[in-house]
Design a protein that fits this description.
This is Pyridoxal-dependent decarboxylase. GO terms for molecular function: carboxy-lyase activity; pyridoxal phosphate binding. Keywords: Lyase, Pyridoxal phosphate. InterPro entries: GrpII_AminoAcid_Decarb, PyrdxlP-dep_de-COase, PyrdxlP-dep_Trfase, PyrdxlP-dep_Trfase_major, Pyridoxal-P_BS, TyrDC_C. This protein is α/β, with parallel strands linked by helices. It has two domains: about 350 residues, 3-Layer(aba) Sandwich (Aspartate Aminotransferase, domain 2); about 160 residues, Aspartate Aminotransferase, domain 1, CATH 3.90.1150. The chain is about 45% helix and about 10% strand. The strands form four sheets. A seven-stranded mixed sheet has the order 1-9-8-7-6-2-3, with helices on both faces. Helix 5 packs across helix 7, helix 5 packs across helix 8 and helix 11 packs parallel to helix 12. The longest helix is centred in the N-terminal third of the chain and has 25 residues. The protein starts with about 25 loop residues before the first helix and ends with a helix. The structure holds pyridoxal-5'-phosphate. The site of pyridoxal-5'-phosphate (PLP) has 13 residues, from helix 5.
Length: about 650
């Protein structure tokens, strides 16, 4: 394995179980300590209750038979799990998974036997508070207000993953968009409700929240009987009550709104539109320019929507695309929202940061302030590009964000998170009408969200996952000096990989052409590879697929047969643009004329994809670089596969 040279990182040593299980004693000590602690808690609840299971029970043949069966099944499970994907190893640079942070793993194991259910405080008196606080920790990381005494404080909650968090973004944006129309239809007086349906439906998120606030204040001043009558009248006009068909039939000036997302968006957006009943056809995919959402194309689509009186629900920007790790211009998207909202075409902006959300820690000072591009960039070769810094700096102006603690948060599945900038809109998601309308002046933020199940898509949900997220953020606060050291390693690893790829290209010179198709924005790096002398796309794709076959998990083979794990993705002209596609093909000597949009495997370029999130890719103890090891391995395999 090649030697690495950078300095020691003692701060990293206690954070993970480690590639070799080096911290086994620490984890074991924690698990045993808190398992015992849990048992004492049981015993001390009512010590006067005698033990229900006799001390002789374990001597009974049936007890022993059951224990034997249990152990037998666990042995089989444990043996089968040896075929799992070795996410913990620095030889794994495939998908978005790695080792788990010990603080989160220990907190989760500690909490599991208490089995809290974060659906409501009755079932989770402790962990529901931790979930709401974890939401506020993430809000602060993003630059949202996190002071719960402020009426416009942010709110965040956990979900099973990024897919459900994105779904929650759609639900919230739709509720906020349609609510002013319901107020109008119900005839609520005296609160400056817009005079026509089109204006009411296209107010935009801030004006929508202000109207909701006025409605609450007005309602609170009415006599109790009147209040109940008005609540019923408004609820009956809401989109959530009527359903799409009846709502739009009653409001013929309105159409089902569109969601605008970059073509690189995750398929959870398609799922979300189907689930919500908006229909996949309402998802309009925007082209990229230079691997990022094209802000001019967004503007053109918005102009067309305005001309056609086509409402827009949400514009999505991706912070770290799943396939390439690229960062969309969040700043341009919020600028577009502000401009078009002022012109009467309001919509919300959601950032899908399922992958890249935690990179925001690199941009935060300990006091919560934003770091300058020079401060962030210290020690990096080129991160962050000005566009990337501008995107992260604009996060605080967006309406909501998805972040996946089970991705770059290094926590167990399923922990996703949804965070919105202004919590007042969340009331519109409540199942019970008395949560929708409430006197905001007398509101207690924490008391309100103790009925979490009122507002989230799920019902019963894991309190242990919430404990894991909260404790991790306490041990490693979400700023550059603490948690940020982890994503810092991943970006440094990506830069080392990028530099190493030039050595790989030189090492296989004359045998194959190797290039990084586009410089990485964050911590994913792709490689385009083409056998020397070949200009045909289908032939190059077949070769990269063969290479990838050796790098993918294969349950039929012993794990140890694999040297390294990588993943694969594709570049399509309709996603990256014709010009960008031609540039990338030329990098490895492929002829754009062999690209055929109706072809079988020549409608795209197949490339290798590497997720560089393992914290031990550069092993400072032994002076080993697994990145260089991987690139050397790749050079050997390319030469072997192309040997005459
Ligand atoms: C992973 C990912 C998702 C989906 O998240 P899950 O946790 O897998 O449900 C959505 N968007 C992006 C950008 C992602 O990377």
């Amino acid at each position: 394995m090649p030697r690495a040279t950078a300095a020691d990182r003692p701060w990293l040593d206690a954070l993970f179980l480690g590639p070799y299980g080096e911290n086994d004693a620490l984890l074991e000590k924690l698990v045993v300590e808190f398992l015992r602690d849990h048992v004492y808690w049981r015993r001390n609840f009512h010590p006067e209750d005698p033990p229900a299971i006799s001390t002789r029970a374990a001597m009974h043949p049936e007890y022993q038979a059951l224990e034997a069966r249990l152990r037998g099944e666990l042995h089989q499970l444990s043996a089968a799990l040896k075929r799992s994907v070795p996410f913990h190893s620095p030889r794994y640079i495939g998908h978005m998974a790695s080792d788990l942070l010990l603080p989160g793993l220990a907190a989760q194991i500690l909490t599991l036997p208490y089995n809290p259910n974060n659906v409501s405080e009755d079932a989770a008196p402790v962990t529901i508070e931790l979930e709401v606080k974890a939401g506020l920790q993430l809000a602060r990381m993003l630059g949202y207000p996190d002071d719960t005494t402020r009426p416009d404080c942010a709110f965040g909650h956990l979900t099973s993953g990024g897919t459900v968090a994105n779904y929650q973004a759609l639900r919230l944006a739709l509720a906020l968009k349609a609510f002013p129309v319901a107020l109008r239809a119900a005839g609520v007086p005296d609160i400056d409700v817009p005079g026509d349906d089109w204006t009411a439906f296209n107010l935009g998120p801030d004006a929508g929240i202000a109207l909701l606030d006025r409605a609450n204040t007005w309602l609170a001043a009415q006599p109790a009987r009147e209040q109940r009558r008005w609540v019923r009248a408004v609820q009956k006009e809401r989109l959530e009550f009527l359903g799409m068909v009846d709502f739009f039939a009653r409001h013929p000036d309105l159409k089902v709104p569109k969601v605008l997302a970059p073509i690189t968006a995750h398929y959870s957006w398609s799922k979300g539109l189907k689930l919500l009943g908006l229909g996949r056809n309402q998802l309009e995919l925007l082209p990229e320019r230079g691997m990022r959402l094209d802000a001019d194309a967004l503007d053109e689509v918005l102009a067309r929507c305005e001309r056609e009186r086509q409402p827009v629900l949400l514009a999505v920007a991706v912070l770290g695309t799943t396939e390439y790790g690229t960062v969309d211009p969040v700043d341009a998207v919020v600028d577009a929202r502000d401009r078009w909202t002022a012109q009467g075409l309001g919509f919300s902006v959601h950032v899908d940061g399922a992958w890249g959300g935690y990179l925001a820690t690199l941009f935060r000072n300990e006091d919560g302030g934003l770091r300058t591009i020079d401060e962030v960039g210290e020690g990096f070769a080129r991160f962050p590009l000005p566009e990337v810094h501008a995107a992260f700096a604009a996060l605080g102006r967006t309406d909501s964000v998805t972040v996946d603690p089970h991705k770059l948060g290094y926590l167990p599945y399923g922990a996703g998170a949804f965070i919105c900038r202004d919590h007042r809109a969340v009331a519109l998601l409540a199942e019970a009408a008395d949560y929708v309308f409430h006197d905001t002046r007398e509101d207690d933020y924490h008391a309100r969200y103790r009925r979490l199940g009122q507002f989230v898509p799920e019902g019963s949900k894991s309190g242990a996952a919430a404990a894991a997220v909260y404790v991790t953020h306490k041990v490693l606060p979400l700023d550059h000096a603490h948690f940020g050291r982890l994503p810092r390693q991943t970006v440094l690893a990506a830069e080392a990989f990028h530099a190493g790829s030039k050595r790989l290209a030189a090492a296989v010179d004359g045998v194959a052409r190797v290039a990084v198709p586009f410089a990485p924005d964050s911590n994913l790096v792709c490689l385009a590879i083409n056998p020397a002398g070949n200009a045909d796309l289908a032939h190059a794709n077949a070769f990269v697929r063969r290479l990838h076959d050796e790098l993918r998990a294969d349950p039929r083979q012993p794990l140890q047969m694999k040297q390294f794990f990588g993943s694969m993705t594709t570049l399509r002209p309709e996603a990256v643009g014709e010009a960008e596609m031609a540039r990338i093909l030329a990098l490895v000597g492929l002829d754009p004329a062999t690209l055929d949009p109706d072809g079988d495997d020549n409608d795209k370029l197949v490339i290798l994809r590497h997720t560089l999130m393992n914290p031990y890719l550069i092993d400072h103890t032994n002076g080993i670089s697994y990145i260089d090891g991987y690139l050397d391995h790749l050079a050997r395999r390319i030469r072997a596969l192309l040997a005459p």
